Amino acid sequence: MDTDRVGVTGYSYGGDISLTISGARVDPEFYLSQCENITNLVPESVQWIYNDYYCQDAKNLEEFVSFVGDEITRSDDGLWQPLTDKRIRAVMPMAPTVSWYYGERGLASVDRPTFLIWGTKDEIYSTEAEYTFDHLIIPSRYLISFIGKTHFLPMTEYGALRIKHFATAFFGYYLQGRENYTEYFSEEFVSQFDDLAWGVYEGE
Q1: For strand 141-146 and strand 114-119, is the pairing parallel, antiparallel, or unpaired?
Q2: Roughly what angle, to the nearest 10 degrees, separates helices 61-68 and 28-35?
Q3: pLDDT tens for residues 149-162?
Q4: How far apart are CA 132 and CA 91, in angstroms?
Q5: Which listed residue, of 5, 10, 96, 137, carries a Cα 20 to 30 Å from 129's Cα?
């Protein structure tokens, strides 16, 4: 194992973790504003998830900040310090659950190759992957949309096989230097399949 060249991936909440260690920075002001406006931002059917899980920290922000510590929360621009490690060279968040911690400014801090995967019929977090992708400013950013697939895409045999392919190609290129692997996670490659879309899917 080459522990100086590490790739991280995760699904759902694990997708958030892999996104966090890509260099994204928490923007507490943005996070609080989103949590205060849940009823206007997410469908009624899933508002309880955001209330019960992702906005618990907003309800106890002082305790949350105290737990995290001044070394991380202190900054000149209002954003927390990035929670990452120079040995992490590439990340692959799958169906990330919430971008509210970061917002536009926090996502602009991502500084390593990032490959997002999501299902276009994600019934829980329908816009998180798109929002994240749209606000990454690094050139080495990728998004593959699995057309018609739900949040539980990785739990299916179909999803697992497809994800294995893209993970092998993406990490093989960025961690192992396998130059020819880029063709296996390219727009040209993805265009061969009717159930995949390169970037944000514009269909229904």
Answers
A1: parallel
A2: 150
A3: 999 998 889 999 99
A4: 13
A5: 5
